[in-house]
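Data availability (excerpt). The following record was deposited with the supplementary files.
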Amino acid sequence: MYSKEHGFYEYDGHTWVHRPDEIIDHYIAEALEHFIDGPFIESIEKALKTKCAKEFKRNEKYYTREFKRIETQCARESERIETYLILFEKE
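Predicted structure:
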């Protein structure tokens, strides 16, 4: 995962761990099956950052929207419960 504000993060199975660009460069080089330095790695890293930033932003919008939907649904359910309690107390 990549965020413009915080950089790269990698999920280790339990938590998200911050990874410096040098580690990402190493992963790219390993994926290419040999260690290449310079502009080739940098161009792949730049493309990866762009793609990950777009995906992060899209996911952030989705989860924010979902959170608001769930929050609204919970508020409605809470109001409904309060109404039932008021009606129940009157009987």
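Summary of structural features: The helical segments are 21-31, 39-90.
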